[in-house]
Amino acid sequence: MKLFTGLIFCSLVLGASGLLSFLGEAARGTWDMLRAYHDMREANYIGADKYFHARGNYDAAQRGPGGAWAAKVISDGRENFQRFTDRFSFGGSGRGAEDSRADQAANEWGRSGKDPNHFRPHGLPDKY
Question: Looking at residue 92, what DSSP letter applies?
């Protein structure tokens, strides 16, 4: 009986540890996504959108499964929200479905561990 109780206790502790690790990765991944968004707004560089999508997802996914999960939730949520609001705004955002698909491709590229510099536009300052 003591062995069974010990095994149950160890399983709970290890499970809680894994959950805390996942949540920590997700929090740090969320921060990576916010940093990429902030950098994109600060750079205000034409043609750099896909680069910042890929970079934010790449940085978040490097944190581990929790970071990759956060990147996917944030990326999908942002694209879905954009599509939703486009239905109610006069003329939409001007982005369209094709641009949304390209954003999602850049998001997946970064999350899969591929180099985000593939999308880096010529002339973007080295700061980014």
Answer: -
Retrieve residue 104's tokens. 């999602």
* b/e 4-19 (16+ beta carbons within 10 angstroms → b): eeeeeeeeeeeeeeee
Q: Mind listing the pLDDT tens digit for each residue in 7-31?
A: 465 555 557 788 899 999 999 999 9
Tokens linked to 71: 């990147």
The per-residue pLDDT for range 57-113, each reduced to its tens digit, is 999 999 999 999 999 999 999 988 888 887 776 555 556 788 889 999 999 999 999
Virtual torsion, Cα 101, 97, 38, 69, nearest 10 deg:
-50
User: Within a 10 A sphere around the Cβ of 74, how many other Cβ atoms?
Assistant: 20
